[in-house]
């Protein structure tokens, strides 16, 4: 195992990685896993990656699970990077299609690693607040691991997500409110009930699964990062995880120091990061009366807000809000032109691309990657 310790992303305090824990015990901010990259590089070499299994576990040495422990896996990762043929045929546009993961979303990456570590460290009951896809992923991986899953969802979560969790043997509780209300309910009961909290960035290992987005993207582009990345942003683990992966790959000597401009895409009805970015704030206040058909973007307050905003500013990127009607319209356009039934969150990124091009914030010669984080099949009511 190459995991050295956990480190607070805000105050830098070190924590031992040998026990279950959530946030920093000093400042209550997210913890990052710190890997001994020099030691990992002795067996992890980019030239030999093609000989390994086509899953996120091909990057095993930079993931936290000990090498002699079997991961909880359903074949996550190894998703296609597709060249856009007709949506924008005058630019170099690529689509990273995460809908081909188990449970049909990118959430499988984080949950595979997090559930693997939770089981290894002795957890028996896992709880998560979810707007849909994270709940489905936890239910699947907990079932695979033989652990109990408790999923707390807003009552108006898309029906497909609720059915998925129940059929995967999770205990589902529907809450009148938003995902923040679901998180509060878990907070009130987890200590007494013995649940381990698997909320976004409230445990250290979901983000490690998301770092593999960055590793995989670099490998698929022959170790040349794109100029621009557009990413649908709720809790922000995808953006933060990729940024962490870019630093790790530079340390490994796999990529140069050039970074993509990172753009966070949110819904106009729930845009705390956009509002904070435009106001020059370091953190994002809770967004009032959050509402959007893109349930994955209906996160009014993210615990990793400061990390998301840091990435956007360090990369000279930005933040863009898209209204629900435009998501649906552009989602249908993507389907007609590219043959992909994208989730509304992914469709929002295609709509954001149109705005960035209109405002001349993306040059025609730049290489752009859009992340479609899930399947439209889970959002039939939205479409």
SSE inventory with pairings:
Layout lengths: L2 E6 L5 E2 L15 E5 L1 H4 L40 E3 L8 E6 L9 H14 L4 E5 L3 H13 L2 E7 L4 H9 L3 E5 L3 H15 L2 E2 L8 H15 L7 E5 L4 H16 L8 E7 L4 H8 L25 H10 L3 E5 L1 H15 L5 H15 L8 E6 L11
Helix pairs in contact: 2-3, 2-6, 3-4, 6-7, 10-11
Structure description:
The structure is a single chain. This protein is an alpha/beta fold and 383 residues long. It has two domains: 81-103 and 207-379, Rossmann fold (3-Layer(aba) Sandwich), CATH 3.40.50; 107-197, Rossmann fold, CATH 3.40.50. 35% of the residues lie in helices and 17% in strands. It is built from eleven helices and 13 strands. The protein has helices at residues 37-40, 107-120, 133-145, 159-167, 179-193, 206-220, 237-252, 272-279, 305-314, 324-338, 344-358, and strands at 3-8, 14-15, 31-35, 81-83, 92-97, 125-129, 148-154, 171-175, 196-197, 228-232, 261-267, 318-322, 367-372. A six-stranded mixed beta sheet has the order 4-5-13-10-11-12, sandwiched between helices. The longest helix has 16 residues, at 237-252. The chain is globular, with a radius of gyration of 19 Å.
**Biggest sheet descriptor:** 6 strands, mixed
The CATH architecture of the largest domain is 3-Layer(aba) Sandwich
Using the coordinates above, name the CATH class of the largest domain: Alpha Beta
How many structural domains does the protein architecture include?
2
Radius of gyration: 19 Å
Give the termini distance in whole angstroms.
45 Å
What is the CATH third-level topology name of the largest domain?
A: Rossmann fold
What characteristic shape results from the CA principal axes?
globular
Q: What value does the average pLDDT take?
A: 97
């Amino acid at each position: 195992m190459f995991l050295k310790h956990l480190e607070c992303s805000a105050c830098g305090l070190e924590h031992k990685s040998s026990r279950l824990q959530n946030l920093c015990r000093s400042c209550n901010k997210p913890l990052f896993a710190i890997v001994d990259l020099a030691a990992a590089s002795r067996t992890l070499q980019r030239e030999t990656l093609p000989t390994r299994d086509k899953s996120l576990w091909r990057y095993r040495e930079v993931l936290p699970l000990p090498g002699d422990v079997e991961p909880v896996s359903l074949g996550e990762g190894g998703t296609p990077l597709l060249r856009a043929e007709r949506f924008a045929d005058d630019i170099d546009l690529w689509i990273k299609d995460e809908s081909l993961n188990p449970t049909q979303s990118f959430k499988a990456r984080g949950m595979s690693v997090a559930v693997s570590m939770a089981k290894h460290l002795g957890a028996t009951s896992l709880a998560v607040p979810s707007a849909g896809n994270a709940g489905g992923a936890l239910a699947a991986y907990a079932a695979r691991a033989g652990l109990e899953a408790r999923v707390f969802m807003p009552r108006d979560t898309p029906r497909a997500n609720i059915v998925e969790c129940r059929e995967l043997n999770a205990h589902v509780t529907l809450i009148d409110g938003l995902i923040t209300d679901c998180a509060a309910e878990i907070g009130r009961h987890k200590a007494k009930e013995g649940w381990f909290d698997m909320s976004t960035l409230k445990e250290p290992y979901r983000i490690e699964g998301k770092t593999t987005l960055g590793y995989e993207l670099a490998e698929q582009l022959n170790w040349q990062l794109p100029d621009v990345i557009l990413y649908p942003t709720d809790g922000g683990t995808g953006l933060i995880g990729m940024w962490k992966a870019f630093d790790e790959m530079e340390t490994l000597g796999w990529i140069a120091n050039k970074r993509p401009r990172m753009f966070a895409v949110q819904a106009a009805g729930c845009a705390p990061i956009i509002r904070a970015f435009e106001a020059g704030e370091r953190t994002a206040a809770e967004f009032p009366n959050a509402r959007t058909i893109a349930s994955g973007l209906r996160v009014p307050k993210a615990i990793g807000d400061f990390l998301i905003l840091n990435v956007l500013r360090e990369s000279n990127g930005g933040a863009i809000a898209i209204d629900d009607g435009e998501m649906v319209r552009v989602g249908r356009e993507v389907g007609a032109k590219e043959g992909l039934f994208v989730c509304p969150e992914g469709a929002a990124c295609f709509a954001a691309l149109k705005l960035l091009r209109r405002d001349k914030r993306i040059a025609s010669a730049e290489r752009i990657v859009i992340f479609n984080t899930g399947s439209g099949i889970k959002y039939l009511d939205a479409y």
